[in-house]
Amino acid sequence: MDTTIRRHSFGAGQHRHRNIPTTATSHPNDPIPSEPKDIRLLKVSPQMRAKFNGMNSPRSSGESLSVATDETTDSEAPSTPPTEPADLNEVTDKLDELPIHSPNPSKKRRASTTLATNSDDIRKLLGDGKGTTFLQKYCCGDGCCMVEALPAPAGQPQHVFVDQPDNDAYRFLRLNIGSLTLDTELTKIVDPPEQKMSFSGLRRQSIDEKFPDELKHEHNREAVDMFPPTYMKPHPPYSIFNAPVYGARELTKPGAEKRTFHFDLDVTDYPEEGGVDFKVGGAVGVCPPNDPYVVEDIMDQLGIPRFQRDKPVRMHTPGGRWPTIWGDEQSRTLVTTRREILTWTVDIASAPPTKPMFRLLADHATAPNEKKILTFLASAQGQAAFCDLRTGPHITLQQLLHAFPSSKPPLEHLCGALNQLMPRFYSLSNDPHVSSAREGLAGRRLIETAVTIHETPSF
């Protein structure tokens, strides 16, 4: 049998032996170095010192090695390559080319919140069901509103910056109008809101003949503050029921950030409706009127004469549900008063201001500086200031009229820029049939609900 002998070879790294050089302070046979002796010291003459001090650029490591006098360095040891001295102008040009970076980036803009307060807002978000639709563009928070911002002020004497109104309501807005002048060109200004109603005169005899239902409804100030108009029907064909407040108490302790109140509403005399009952877990819609003091102040700012505020007028609407809340979409002719319209049909406190609102105020402002600022807020150049206004402190119609006192739009046009005052729904926490069996409440049906109040600063 043949046996094949295989030779295996294993590679091994080769080690190159290096001799330790002999110097004046060390020797291969003597591992302990000795103190250097007879070493020539480097002396710098005054002429050489003046030469070194006159250099503009710092010395490199290569230049430092070139003046050494010790020639006993190991020739085989690697040395640091010398660095050429940099030109000062070249370094300056490179620094200018670097991007400017702020160590403290500005805080990301908070996106604005828009509440769906009526059926038109719901349709705008959900679409008409005919295909893919995009949601309406609101503030995204990435600063795209700064794209068409006004340039920085040039400081030229012919540019006269806009004088901002001097009142507390305007200062509370904290508007940043930048370099806005009376001659600044503004683009992409939104259209004014569409007028959705008009007024006409009405004789007392016409009310008796053409509007017999209005004979049971009074239009004086005290009645308007207490009872809603008969044409408002959030649950057609039923009208709004005036439920007395049987009791109210605060649930939170004094000093709480948000106060919560418990209300007992008396629905003993609520009319019978088919398929309607009050059960735990359900909801009840409350139609609150606007604050009478705020309504009176708005009419003062609009310049409505006092004798016209409670005078019955004929109101014409071209179409839609307004002001009935959930009535049929059709044109209407109703009997109302200007106080009644502001008290029950339009939202003057909850919704933030819109660009069509600013355009309307600008069209009816007589002061040039106020007109320019309002137009600026309705333009593309004022988008950043508009976003800051909507995402900042709570702003109401009353404050805007005080901030820009020269703007007095007609009530007919102003209602087109305001949302419908909608019912506010609250969950029921009890069964009214159970409450009627409690001691002292025999036969009286009460519904219980809790409301949280959030207070915001005002001007």
From TrEMBL:
MF terms per GO, please?
[methionine synthase] reductase (NADPH) activity; flavin adenine dinucleotide binding; FMN binding
The Sulfite reductase [NADPH] flavoprotein alpha-component-like FAD-binding domain is annotated at 239-435
Q: What is this protein called?
A: Sulfite reductase [NADPH] flavoprotein alpha-component-like FAD-binding domain-containing protein
Cofactor(s), by name: FAD
Indicate whether Flavoprotein appears among the record's keywords: yes
- Which residue stretches does the UniProt record annotate as biased composition, category Basic residues? 1-19
Protein keywords: FAD, Flavoprotein, Oxidoreductase
Region listing for Disordered, in residue ranges: 1-88, 96-115
Any one Gene Ontology cellular component term annotated for this protein: cytosol
Biological process (GO) annotations?
Answer: homocysteine metabolic process; methionine biosynthetic process
Q: Which Pfam families match?
A: FAD_binding_1
- Specify the domain of life of the species encoding this protein: Eukaryota
User: From which source organism is this entry?
Assistant: Hortaea werneckii (Black yeast)
Give the Polar residues compositional bias ranges.
54-78
Q: Give the InterPro entries listed for this entry.
A: CysJ-like_FAD-binding, NADPH_Cyt_P450_Rdtase_alpha, Riboflavin_synthase-like_b-brl
